[in-house]
Amino acid sequence: MEVPRVGHSVSSPTSPCEVMMKNLSLDAIQLCDREGNKSQDSGIAEMEELPVPQHIKISNITCDSFKICWDMDSRAKERITHYFIDLNKKENKNANKFKHKDVPTKLVAKAVPLPMTVRGHWFLSPRTEYTVAVQTASKQSDGDYAVSDWSEIVEFCTADYSMVHLSQLLEKAEAIAGRMLCFSVFYRNQHKEYFDHAREAQNNKMLPSVKDNSGSHGSPISGKLEGIFFSCNTEFNTGKPPQDSPYGRYRFQVPAEALFNPGTNLYFADFYCMYTAYHYVILVLAPCGSPGDNFCKQRLPRLDIADNRFLTCVQDEDGHLTFRHAQDLILEVIYTDPVDLGLGAVAEISGHQLMSLSTVNAKKDPSCKTCNISVGR
Predict the structure, then answer these.
(1) Whole-structure pTM value
(2) pLDDT per residue over 235-272, tens digit each?
(3) Which residues contact residue 184 at a Cβ distance below 8 angstroms, ignoring those fewer than 6 apart?
(4) CA–CA separation, 62 and 60 (whole Å)
(5) Under 8 Å between Cβ of 85 and 107
(6) For the chain, what percent of residues have pLDDT higher than 70?
(7) For residues 168 and 272, what is the distance between their CA atoms, to the nearest angstrom?
């Protein structure tokens, strides 16, 4: 949306300190961090009351945009030249003032027909709750503004990454995947108690659980998709799984064909790093037609199991399956159905438990240019 040059401070209905608004070129987003009302601001003129926006409506919400509209008295519409939109993360509403908190965002836009689209990856993040309030304003000949009272404050939550955003992540991950190495087993490390519980209380099966919040903040599978994490990366010099693990000293190994075969769909879910040189790709293996498959096909890019840059299963003329994984990425593979321990074997590993490499609830590095795209992180 087009926004004019602003030379005066504008109050916010929710923010507590005084900072002069700054002119920015992209959608001319104005930032301030201040609480007050129109009578307290020397840069805002007093004149006949302007209409206060009523019945704020938020629609067409994505991970980095939304549409906003409202009702207002039509008698003074011709005097309205601008709208002031005050946007704040809801989580900061009662933040400790002595701790760092995000600066609220003030959007100053020329009065345009409603609904108006608000878009900006530099101040909107996926899966985040926001509050928003609106003022109408009239720019005066001396550059000051006459403003209405603030509207009611309404709340909304931004969406997950869309297929478009995930396709952008997919392209970035493909660029650094490296060559493909052969592998023959998927493996899962855990503590001994985990496997004992599966045998004794879960009919000898590992059961899917809800994915944690590791990886990209906008990932559509975090906190929603149920599955079981497996690894498949091998050591370059041996072609076998590494003997170290961050997750436990006991490892379940299962032949790759038990989980990955022509009856399985493969999906790309995420690409991230954790402030290190290592980059991770999350893939989902879902038996065709399963609940996990139905969930993924609506939300994630589907990969050709025989021709992709991350994980392949190729069947020859005799029906024999060959498996390969990307060398330069750490793959985290989520299998969406229960897995019977009878399909493989559990044994203790000889290496170390490297807790520092755990990705449980790991946060993505928002500054990495390799694995971030131009939307909220």
Answers:
(1) 0.79
(2) 877 888 888 777 888 999 999 999 999 999 999 999 99
(3) 255, 256, 323
(4) 7
(5) yes
(6) 79
(7) 13
